[in-house]
């Protein structure tokens, strides 16, 4: 006996869903970048000499924490604290990790380390926005929140 899965084809041309995914991604980017950029700036301005790898890991962790916190506060308007927290963690954790990784990889490729300069932040934010956007679009589509 064989089991077959029904695959739902994703419509990648829905402007309304792209707009919703973009708004969701921007909120996530705001939360992630506060923790991420704040951590890198702290180590840079305080001249703390840690290995780049550990600074980047801590920046990713702090970015995840600030993003989950921001999303929980935003979702709290619609639901209780517990549900808002669970939704914030569940709805975009993969997206946040992809976003954080893209931002830190971009920083490393452009500067060779965990360094913030006026010219590296825009590419970091662009990479952080574009990397999870298709995933966020797809999630909206498979959970029935977008065009079909």
Can you walk through the features of this model?
The protein has 148 residues and is mainly α. The chain has one domain (16-142). The chain contains five helices and no strands. The chain has helices spanning 15-45, 52-76, 81-111, 121-130, 133-142. Helix 1 crosses helix 5 and helix 3 (81-111) packs across helix 4. The radius of gyration is 17 Å and the shape is globular. The two termini are 32 Å apart.
Q: What brief labels describe this structure?
A:
0% strand, 148 residues, globular, mainly alpha, 72% helix
Give the helix/strand layout.
Elements: H1 15-45, H2 52-76, H3 81-111, H4 121-130, H5 133-142
Helix pairs in contact: 1-2, 1-3, 1-5, 2-3, 3-4
Strand content: under 5%
SS-derived structural category: mainly alpha
Biggest β-sheet, characterized? none
Please provide the count of β strands. 0
State mean pLDDT (0 to 100 scale).
87
Outline? globular
Separate helix tally: 5
Percent helix, as a range, is over 70%
Low-confidence stretches: none
What can be said about this structure in brief?
Helix content is 72%, strand content 0%.
